[in-house]
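ok here's LysR substrate-binding domain-containing protein:
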Amino acid sequence: MKHLPSVRQLRAFVAVYQSGHLSAAAEMLSLTQPAVTVLLRELEEKLGVRLFDRTTRTLRRTDAAAEAIAYAERALAELDAMGASMAELAGSRRGRLRIAATSTVAQTLLPRAVRRFMDLYPQVQVLIDDCAPGEFVEHVLGERVDLGVGTLEAPTAGLREQVFLRDGLAAVALASAAFADGRPITWKQLAALPLITVKPGYGVRRRIDQAAETAQVKLTVVHEVSLLTTAIALASSGLGVAVVPASTAAAAPYPGLAVRRLVRPSVERNTAVVFKPERSLPPPAQAFADLLAREFGQR
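and the structure:
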């Protein structure tokens, strides 16, 4: 490697070759004339050839210089191209973003964020892996994606969460005099109503069961489903009261629904960017994580 020219030496050589004068080359490079002379001399020593025949007043290109110029210009062009390419990647002006999200997140929170991201970074290709809750952790750990957007129901070795949305559980049903929008409802009051929840082992079900145990009540579950969005759809048809995160309820496309925050106890369910901490996020993935923090107002 010690015999390879440096970038500064190549730039000095190209500037002198193109201008034909040390003074002009020095001005082009914002260097002093003696500094350019030293760079040329060092380059000639590394290459073992003379590039210019010098007199007190002129420089004459040698045959070696005529042959070397093409290599020098090509090398500098490749370095410039590499710098420009890396700058584009660093600035998320191009690249690829792979996101894992559970089906509910993919249907509710993700579309708004992805639309905003694509408006800001149109040259980045966005790939969404909408997976089952049981596959979410596996896909992030297996590096099938750059990051996940969702909730870890329990701490997971090898994964880190960057919370961007702090959410609470809510009860959702058709609006009525008995189920008015806006008023909190306790778990004891909820126990008297027919409930729609996700199945045991799915998503928020463990937190629902823990809250019922804390409140010392037995819930009346009439429907168990796999997706939170299905629970809300059933509630919109008057089949019961769905227990879902408040943000999921807010994104539901069904008119006439009332949403009541659950209290005593209040149950928090955070939504986060999930990633492997020992693996650097690619620039597009970091840009998306930053966007989620801005869009949802929490870090």
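+1. The chain has a mean pLDDT of 89.
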